[in-house]
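User: ok so my PI wants both of these folded by tonight, can you help

Assistant: No problem, let's get them done. Here's the first:
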Amino acid sequence: MKDHKKKRSHAFLILNISWGTLTIGLFIVLLYSNWQVSQLKFQQNLLHTVEKAGNQIDGLIQSLMQSVYRLPIHDENYRECTEEDLQHLVFNHPEISALAIKDKTGKPICSSIKLKNHLLIQSKAAFAMDGPLSISGLDLPVFLFQQRLGNYYLQVYVLEEVLARHLRTSSRLIQSVWLFDNNKKKIILYLEQKREQPAPIAKKTEYPNLAELPDITQPHAIKTKLSTLDDVDLYMSALPEKLQRSAWREEGLLALLLFVLAIMIYFMLRHWVNKRFSLRRAIKTAIKNERFYPVYQPIMNKKLGICCGAEVLTRLKSHEHEVILPDLFIEDAEQSGLIIPITLQLIEKSFQDGQSLLKNNANFYLSFNLSAIHFKDKHFFDSFYKLYKQYGISPEQIMFEITERDLLIRNDAVLLNRMEALRKAGFLLAVDDFGTGHASISYLQHFPFNYLKIDRLFIQAIGTGAITESLNQSIIHMAKNLKLNIIAEGVETEEQVQFLQENDVHLMQGWYFAKAMNLNKLQSFIKGVNHG
């Protein structure tokens, strides 16, 4: 048993080290991989947001220009433009603040407002943008979109606020958005999300220097090109702390999930190791190696002064020759059903050892403990009958003690028939540990018992004044009325012996007479008592 415990402890040590190492390694790999995936997902979300904002700006510009492309501008000498025409277009398109058509020098040919300058955007691109600008006739800053059409320039003025509105995003991750003019190397519009307000993004009047802008090589910043403007790029940056917070939240959830899974796997492995090195497995191994053996506790007949029988008790011998008492394994053996092969092994060894003893002492019997499990098993009694016939043992020399706490089912016809068959064949039946379970007078009348064993709990109460002491006479009186032979077990004192004899209980068993012993010592004990 020590070797079994040592192997079990060693197995658990290996399990703990292996599980801990693999779990830590798996945590590191999966958390690192998840971190990378989180960064990638964040960048993809950021890219989607900036592309969406870029599409909004491109859509705005295309909408602005589509509305003015209906003007009959020709390659040569376009002088038919009137202020009323342009004002009509401005009226029909509320996002346009002003329109102007200029010649190559920037001189207005016509405009929807009075222009005092000859402003032209100097760019090689056919379509260009500039701003923010302060224009006479308009109270607020505007952006200028310029399209070259032949010998003329078509200029559309849009309020800065209109452009800013199309750049705004409700995403809580975005910190800032800006438009950057690659020709002039400057920011032309900058929007920043206020920290105390999650949305929307607010326009900033003072733009940061280039050195103050987020590094777009970092995962929290990104840019996209506008399809309508060659020289202008759209940039977005996310709040780094939100990026980190989002990533750490995912890491935390994954870590929790991994921890739960790891614990589940650990307990599954622990269960497997327990099963592999469990007491049940040790019992199976002991059965296979025939390491269960019988010891015998004498049963005395004080009236005749002889040893009339012995209760067969089981012991288990470990690999280290350590004797293991049944308290350590009997419960597990009963629950697993392994009590059946243990009992059969015990009976066979008892018959082998005690064959000559039983033949030389016709009135001597061996008593074996059975439970309801034995009666429910389909093969136990078939195997038992083969054994007792094989060794030529008389049925009158075999007693079965059936534990009362098992509470045999009264309406079980198979059980009752089995017990009646045993009694008819001459076997002795005793109800064991009486008083500790649920047996009653009707219970004893229903089953064909011919012996009753008073439990040691009541015997040891003799002379103590305890409540259980007063029950002894009631049990004895009941047993006599039912014509049951009484065996008192757990007898340890002279006072107990005298009390039992005074109440005509002559069959006794306990340490007062002898402890459980091997067969050789039992034979010597019988000779000493019977011929003393």
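One down. Here's the second:
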Amino acid sequence: MDQFLARLPSQPIPPADLEVDPPTLDLGTLKPGKDIKCSVKIRNKGRRILYGSVSIEGIPWLSIGEGKPRSRSRFNTFQDAPLPMTVFTNSLRTSEKTVEGKLIFETSGGNLIVPVTAEIPIRPFMIGTLAGAKSPKQLAEKAKANPTGAAVLFENGTVESWYKENGWVYPVPKPPAQGLAAIQQFFEALGYVKPPKVLTTTTNLLFELQPGDVKDQTITLFNEEKKSTYAYAKSDKPWVRIAKPVLKGGKAYLKISVSASELPTSLELATLSITTNGNQSIKVNIEAQVLVQGSEFADLTGDVSPVMPQFLGSPFATNEPSQGSIQNTGIPEPTSAPILSVHPLARKVKSNQWLGYAIAGFFGVSLISLIGTIIYLGIRKMNTQTPTPAPATKTK
């Protein structure tokens, strides 16, 4: 359309000429909460179509239009048109300095940059011994001056919540350490102190279990610099139970438990991943096995009492003496015995798999017998068909 107007046989039409009102956009003081609507007016001082694009730079929480965030948009207009924008306040990041950005217009009526400014003041820490801190650096200084009072604020997540209120990324990985180790963890995350080299008492755990057993072992983590050691762990198998770390005397203790009833098979392997100071990673191999013992046809259903013969007149027929019966006090009473394991053949018998094996065995033996009979009859027939040589005659 603009090219068509330029070719009309008449007096020249003034070209598009861009102007933005206001020339500088000041958003004032912003705080997290409800989203804010704002706009600038695009003016065309010429008489031809003004078209082009606008983009936002340096302020990610400002978006063109409404709804889904957009940092760039195209437009065209003959005269004046508003450019609506949205401030997503939940994405704000507080700062001690004025936040600056810009709107960049590239159009047929010329290019233009509109500066955008805003004040996003820091929300100071308001609780306990860390109250009044306005930056992570000030917070660390207050924590160093009073570590005992500050430790609980790191451990219970109050410091992390303060970071979120200011739109900052909390540098400490979850879960937080306990006690003074929580401050050590925070200092290491900010790079104020160098994390110590963490050692472990073992990198292999072996659990030998009987059916029904639950056993545990403890991994001790420590460092030789006499600094606080913290750690948390996770396993790649669900049957490995990990207790909450215990931090004491500069060491970290991880209690690992395994239950025989939770193992899918009698032999299982797992890997324990431990994260400790300075995001150091330690791998521990875990092997758990259930020891197989007991009768060939044991049934793992509980305690089983021995089956005693119930013959008429037998001294084992009853435990109570009756008239005319023989009492044998020298024979001990039967007692129940726990079954320790299940033999693989017992499982097959119990699950009726023996029937399939029996049928297969029967047909196998029959097939072998049939083949043997055919071979025997063939050989016998060949022997009967072989002609007997005639006796030689004597000539006189």
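The chain has seven helices and 20 strands. Helices lie at 2-7, 136-145, 147-155, 158-165, 180-190, 344-350, 353-385. Good luck tonight!
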